[in-house]
Hints:
By secondary structure, the protein is an alpha+beta fold. Helix 14 packs antiparallel against helix 15 (588-605) and helix 16 (609-629) runs parallel beside helix 19 (653-694). It has 25 helices and 17 strands. The chain is flat and about 150 Å long. Strand 2 and strand 3 (145-148) form a beta hairpin. The chain crosses the membrane at residues 27-48, 309-332.
Amino acid sequence: MKHLFARIRKTGFLLPAVKGQFYRKSLLLMLGITCLPTIIMGCLFYIFGSANIKEEVTYSNEALLQNALKRMEEDLNQLELTAVQWAYDPRFDGSLRNIDLKQEYSTTQELYRTLVGMKGFNPLIDQVHLYLDGLSPRIVSDPDGIEAVDGYEDKAAYRGIIDSPNKSSFWLNGFPRVNQQDNHEVVLAQKVPGVGEPYGLLVFYLNRDKLVEMVRELSLGKSGHSFIFDEQGNFVVTDKGAGLPEGSPFESALSAQIMRHRTSESGTFLYEWENRTYTVTYGDFSKLGLEWTYVTAASLSSLTAPVQLLSKIIIAISLCGFVLALLLSWLASKRMYSPISRLVRLFRDNRHLSEPNPDEIGFLENEWRHLYEESHELRDKLEKARPGLRSSFLLHLIQGHYYYLNEEELRERMSGFGWTVNDKGFLLILFQVTGLGRQQGRFEENDVQLVSFAAENLVQELTRALDEEADTINFQDMSVGILLSFNKEEPAETVRSRAFHLANSLAQASSAVLKFHSTVLAGTPMMRITDIPGSLQQLRQVVRYREVGEGNQILSLEELLPGVTGDTVPYPFAAEKEVTQAIRMGFKDEVYDAIQSFMETLVREGSKEMFIQDGAVQLLGSIQHAILETGYHPRALYGDDDLYEELRQLREPDQITVWLKHRIVEPYCETLKRDQTLHLRLLVERAMDYIKLTFASDLSLERCAEHLGTSPFTLSKAFKQVTGSNYIDFLMRLKIDKAKEMLIGTDMMVNEIAQQIGYRPSYLNRLFKKLEGVTPGQYREQAMRKE
């Protein structure tokens, strides 16, 4: 608890002394703004909301009860109407009065079918009996067939209904079934025929389960009770069963209470039972002169449960709203004070103060003045860094990184960096240094950035000397951009003259100072800053039309653009074919010579840089196609590198030639050589195994090559490269070694040994003497003496 209290106090919830006046005032204000409306709204919502909810629940329960009663009366009335209609059916005319049903089989079957049809017509009907009065009263029913009525009480009950005047339909409670003990039935009895003197009854026994379902619809809630009783207090049906002589103790007591104290046809009252309060609703409804009373009772707690739950929810929501309001007010005040607190804490840490001023605003005001003084010092330092920022902005502008800014926004930004842009136009000049590969001893191939830096310094010094209003951009690829400014009123011819004068001076200075050839390309005058990136792209494209191999060149964008599409495209197809053939052969020196010849022909026939680059790109594609035909995939040799992009970065023919040799051809030739060496070694090993098995036969080079599936030339070359000796020498040495083993290890004659290894005896003696210095016989004698 101590740690929790300390943490709460640290967060500022308890208004500690370290907080200033501003924090206390803001917290009290937020508490008043948030909590008071929440309390008022919660109280009003509980008072009016609970009352409305209670009314709605009561109204809904009454509506449900009335709808259930209405449905029950409609179902019973429908059954009454149906019974009357059946009584007028011609099949129940007077002919049935004295008919012998056992003799009249067809008539009996027709009655069975009619009774079955009546039973299935209405779900309330459980069974239908036809009572026929006479000297021998009998009952006709589907389940029991024809049954005689012998009991006196049964005859009296049926006869009493038939003799009742002024009524043809009767609702009966507890009417018995003939010859059955269970007489707790709800019955609708209808005299037949409908016209004339009745001779029988249609007795409809109601389905107990359906009656129970109808009564259950009167119940309010799961714990409710509902039942119907008649004028004598006998239960007609309850939600537990139909036709019971008495209900549960609660229902019996409740029905007795209603019969004793009822003062009207319907009413509602509260009833106490076993320490629980029930709300009871009752009412009367008549069925053909029979008065029935319906009763529904529900626990008061179950009815008010939704209201109580909602009331609790309202109270809980109100409390949560109040707590939330407290929390929000604390968070809001803390949020409001957070920037003040951060500033105070920041100043205190910077100034190494132990405690801030109790008046936070005054403290911040003093510190703000101190910061204002320091900002002037930082502004002076920023002015010193402005040139670097200016150059960075110009580089991004020319490269098109500010495409999302319009003309006014760009001029505003340039004004902020010190440019005078009002009534100003611009012209872009591209100064490109070439011939790095020809500088022997002064620069290396990787000194591109160093040459670019030297070119930028040259441009800056020259523009200052000519008093030109210009800015330089170092592209770090041996090219420098020059953004020349001029007045919009200045004639276009004057602007072009100034640009060409500057370009001529740059070309001369490049040759004199840097000892490099250069290409200077002047763009077109532009009145909009947004046109500058497009001008750079045009210059980059047109500079590829320079003549390779010539000295300094000065080009004009306006002069080149109309005619750039009229040049033919020379391409040395024959030289390309020599390169691809050399690739397929795998001879590195021949490939190098073919590439050198291709580039020389390309430079001679198409001297423009664009044609040379395009031709080199085409040659690269042809080389990759040839490599694929030899069974190697370029990705396995060069990885995922973008070779075409690398090639596009090269401008000089010498650079392109060196790049094709070392970057493309050399990895392929090394891989091919390694794989060929392995293939030849495996071929020689297979040949050796075959020779050792068949050396005694006439095994020629051609026969061995045919067995291995290769050419004699390839097999001979493989033997020479792998073993250092040719095929014949290897075979001869193998046979001599085998003869030496036989001379030492067996008693075979020299002639026999010669036959075993496939030589004639005389040739074996001569060859053995030449290689070993002794004859076979002398070799055997020397070996035996040593043993």
